[in-house]
Amino acid sequence: MKPVQLYTAGTPNGQKVSIMLEEIKALNPSFEYETHAIDMSKNQQKEDWFLKMNPNGRIPTILDPNNTATDAEGFPVMESLAIMLYLEKKYDDKHVFSWSDSDPKGENYRNQVLQVTIFPHIHSANHSISTPVPRMLTPFLLSPLTSSSTPLQWCSWQMAGQGPMQGQANHFRMQAVGDSKNVVPYGIKRYHDETVRLYSVLEAGLEGREYLVGDGKGKYSLADMLTFPWALWYRFAGIKHEEVGPNVKAWIERIRARPAVQKGLEVPSKSELLKKLDDVSRQTRRREKERERERERERERERERERERR
Ligand SMILES: N[C@@H](CCC(=O)N[C@@H](CS)C(=O)NCC(=O)O)C(=O)O
After folding, report:
1. Which domain holds residue 107?
2. 252 inside domain
3. Residue whose CA is closest, atom 5 of ligand 1?
4. Which atom of ligand 1 is nearest to the CA of 83?
5. Following CA atoms 28, 34, 35, 36 in sequence, which dihedral angle do they give, to the nearest 10 degrees?
6. Of all atoms in ligand 1, which is nearest to the CA of residue 79?
7. With contact defined as beta carbons under 8 Å apart, do 267 and 35 qualify?
8. How remote is the CA of residue 13 from the centroid of ligand 1, in Å?
9. Is position 148 within any domain?
């Protein structure tokens, strides 16, 4: 087997794919991949050689030299979800990170997938619509029939909701500030609030569960791999610690504990920003504990005063 070629940069979209490649490698030691770091500050993703593989000129992109059915050099895949579905089909044949197509109820699942998949696009296209996504998703999340469609639902939610919205929140906060005269407060607030709303959807989806999809507490799947890197970077988009619920935070830690995830996060290189985010998280946790201790001391003082009064 030849190594799959990965073209990436240290961003959440890139990390989705490097995490999946590391997970596949952990399953199958004969599987290999090679990384090509793309320097986005030099716009390498817009160079001709790159556009031949990915006409959209964005990372991540893979080229699979083991698949020469349509091109002797290999099969190029763009778009993180398409890449992950491709990798899953080709290199996770035991469906460790997904569910089998041979399920007799598969056609129903696919139909449900289509119903829900189209829906989130409405809200990214039309900002005047306030979407009842939790209500739409609830019957599917609760149904025991949906274990193979729910990964796609969550994947669509990620691709059409969390990724674009948090990406815009991030853009307005981190990149648009340089052109401050053009910054529109409405835009900043719009994307921030929408991202916070999406985190509440994620929080509800994780209620009583360890992973997004599957029976019982769920099974770690590509839906988690796809959603996790963005969730990990929430601070980068200006989402505050207290705007993210406890289920999401616990899920982030659970996934981050996986060795393949740790390796995948360091592709193409160790991120200084991620280290800074970690430091901020540690400081916040410390401050939260201090505040909790102070509240406990205040409660104790109150009890003491109550005793003295009696
Ligand atoms: N929907 C795409 C988004 C890819 C994307 O936005 N990539 C960004 C980095 S995270 C990029 O390549 N930006 C450079 C550019 O737009 O030129 C996916 O999921 O793969």
Report:
1. 4-119+154-278
2. yes
3. 58
4. 20
5. -160
6. 20
7. yes
8. 7
9. no
In angstroms, what is the span from residue 305 Cα to ligand 1's centroid?
59
The span from the CA of 269 to the CA of 279, in Å, is: 18
CB 206 within 8 A of CB 251: yes
Number of domains comprising the chain: 1
Within a domain: 129: no
Residue pLDDT, tens place only, 59-69? 999 999 999 99
- Judge if the beta carbon of residue 45 lies within 6 A of ligand 1: yes
Residue of 6, 58, 77, 171 best suited for mutating to test ligand 1, as the one with most atoms within 8 Å of CB? 58
Arithmetic mean of pLDDT, 287-302 = 87
Q: Is residue 40 part of a domain?
A: yes
272: domain CATH number is: 1.20.1050.130
Local confidence band at 124 (pLDDT 50, 70, 90 cut-offs): very low
Residue closest via CA to ligand 1's atom 17 equals 58
pLDDT band for position 104 (cuts 50, 70, 90): low
- 171-204 pLDDT, tens digit per residue, is 877 777 665 656 778 888 988 999 999 999 899 9
Cα radius of gyration rounded to whole Å, the chain: 22
Residue 58 near ligand 1, beta carbon < 6 Å: yes
Q: Is 59 in the pocket of ligand 1 (CB under 6 A)?
A: yes
**Cα 106 to averaged position of ligand 1 atoms, centre (Å):** 31
Q: Ligand 1: distance of its center to the CA of 11 in Å?
A: 9
Q: Considering only CA atoms, which of 221, 158, 168 is closest in space to residue 193?
A: 168
166 lines ligand 1 (CB under 6 A): no
Q: Which of the four pLDDT bands, split at 50, 70 and 90, describes residue 146?
A: very low
Nearest to residue 134, comparing CAs of 178, 198, 74, 50? 198
Tally of helices (H runs) and strands (E runs) in the chain: 12, 4
